[in-house]
Write a structure and sequence with these properties.
Elements (H helix, E strand, L loop, with lengths): L3 H12 L4 H4 L17 E2 L29 H15 L10 E15 L2 E8 L17 E10 L6 E15 L2 E14 L3
Parallel strand pairs: 1-2, 4-6
Antiparallel strand pairs: 2-3, 2-5, 3-4, 5-6
């Protein structure tokens, strides 16, 4: 689990990485690409969502355009959202599948310039600059072998077996865990 000082160090390292901010903007998602020649099935973040799950269900009837900062209803809505998104269900059909998915990495554990554990998230800035996405849109990755030369919020492809397993970290709650067999830089 990332400690507060480690989280701050990760954020600072991200902020001073030359040229990184210019490549992606907050909220950017990686464009879909054709599958590479691999034994792993390429999936999208939408594949991780159960077909019947509505991430905005707790906001039915609420007109957020009428809320202002500091409004108790806005605070209540944000709290309601966080509770609902932390309990976001995983897609049972994805359990124990060998997949390949593109996303942005949020480091949890570094060792000897090798990245052993990280969260994979669907958009740039998730968990660092903004509240975390729903739990079913976060993958807790354990890389074996550890990834080398990676940086916070770097765009990557991750290949491995995904399973449904809740994990709470200082950066967010995930519904999935992946035993990564490969972590490579994403190329556009």
């Amino acid at each position: 689990m990332l400690k507060p000082l480690a989280a701050l160090a990760t954020l600072l390292a991200f902020l001073v990485t030359p040229g990184f901010a210019a490549e992606y903007k907050l909220g950017d998602r990686l464009p879909a690409r054709a599958a590479a020649k691999t034994a792993f099935k390429t999936v999208t973040w939408d594949d991780l969502l159960p077909k019947d799950w509505d991430p905005m269900a707790s906001f039915k009837g609420l007109d957020v355009s009428k809320l202002k900062d500091g409004d108790p209803r806005a605070e209540e809505a944000l709290q309601k959202l966080r509770v609902a998104w932390d309990a976001a269900p995983a897609n049972e059909a994805m359990n124990r599948k060998s997949i390949r998915i593109a996303g942005f990495l949020v480091p949890l554990e570094w060792g000897d310039k090798k990245l052993k554990e990280f969260l994979l998230v669907p958009y740039f800035g998730a968990c660092i600059h903004t509240p975390p996405p729903p739990a079913n849109q976060i993958i807790h990755v354990v890389a074996d072998p550890p990834a080398k030369g990676m940086q916070a919020m770097e765009a990557v492809w991750v290949e491995g077996e995904i399973e449904i397993a809740l994990a709470d970290t200082d950066m967010g709650r995930s519904s999935y865990r992946m035993k990564a067999r490969g972590v490579t830089r994403y190329k556009q």
